[in-house]
Design goal:
The chain is 49% helix and 12% strand. It is an alpha/beta fold. Bound molecules: zinc ion (ZN).
Length: 307
């Protein structure tokens, strides 16, 4: 790895596990820059709508001065990025191709194959090399715009992590953000989804992250439990700052989303957010659902520290 490699902390985990909150908390540290997710979703891009997607500051990406500065700096670095051009995103815009990539990245052999293809298969190799270069420029442009030195990426997805771990210009660390499976399943139920399917997704994602961490023992690893982050943000963030290698400051216990430029789910739009524990799962899941969820993921949940 070159000595001038850019420090990146990659937040891996399921969606709806507090990553947007963590993004806002991380971005509050002056030495860390975090924009949440690192591209507008392909679904929105396919509609040609990405410039009108909203930033947490309340403006559209096309109008937000922060994003305007980031894209201008990326052009200085030689990359043509913009509100309609997210050349830093490894995802395919074609949903079937993306589904195949996701599935491959859920197994050790699949991840090895993706890594090998990125270095050897003509066509895919060229595609990935172009995204690698655009992504490094994107990250450096954000650090420049923020005056920060550590980039935190809350994209969460394994395929992006698998690709970024091969890039010599990035000095990667892995932060595993995990929520109690019962809370995760209850949150899925609240959104109209099956708690049992949610437990399966949770189980698959946690085992995938553990496998990736084992495959890269040289990559520093730190785990944050969502519930602990909410119950004791000060201690949790002090440990996260130490892991990120940034100076020790007093962590915030509330964040104003509009003071940041974060892309992510809708909770970011609420203005001031007080960090608090959401334990509504205790009443949202009925006894049978709770039994099914724990039958799928109970032992791993306990291993991860959820009693
Ligand atoms: Zn903004």
């Amino acid at each position: 790895m070159p000595t001038d490699a850019t420090p990146v902390v990659y937040i891996a985990g399921c969606g709806h596990s507090g990553s947007t909150l963590l993004a806002l908390l991380l971005d509050s540290h002056p030495e860390i820059a975090c924009v949440g997710e690192t591209a507008v979703k392909p679904k929105i891009r396919r509609r040609g709508d990405s410039a009108s997607a909203t930033c947490s500051c309340g403006r559209t990406i096309g109008e937000c001065p922060f994003w305007t500065a980031v894209f201008a700096q990326a052009r200085v670095l030689g990359e043509d990025l913009g509100p309609e051009r997210w050349a830093n995103d490894y995802r395919f815009e074609q949903p079937l191709a993306q589904r195949a990539l996701n599935r491959l990245c859920n197994t050790t052999r699949g991840r090895d194959l993706v890594r090998w293809a990125a270095d050897h298969v003509p066509g895919y190799r060229g595609r990935v090399a172009a995204i690698d270069t655009a992504n490094v420029a994107f990250i450096r442009a954000i650090l420049h715009a923020q005056g920060a030195r550590v980039f935190a990426d809350t994209s969460k997805r394994t395929p992006r992590l698998v690709h970024m771990l091969r890039v010599p210009e990035l000095d990667m660390k892995l932060l595993h953000l995990v929520r109690d499976v019962r809370g995760y399943a209850a949150s899925a139920k609240k959104r109209g989804m099956s708690p049992v399917d949610a437990a399966r997704t949770w189980y698959r994602d946690q085992t995938t992250i553990a496998d990736v961490a084992r495959a890269y023992p040289q990559v520093p690893f730190h785990r944050v439990r969502y519930e602990e982050m909410c119950a004791d943000p000060v201690t949790t963030l002090r440990n996260v700052y130490a892991f990120c290698g940034v100076s020790r400051i007093d962590p915030p216990t509330a964040v104003d989303a509009t003071a940041h430029h974060v892309l992510g789910n809708n909770m970011r739009m609420g203005g001031a957010i007080r960090v608090r524990v959401d334990d509504s799962w205790k009443t949202r899941l009925d006894a049978e659902e709770l039994r099914q969820v724990l039958a799928i993921a109970g032992s791993l949940n306990r291993e991860l520290g959820f009693g």
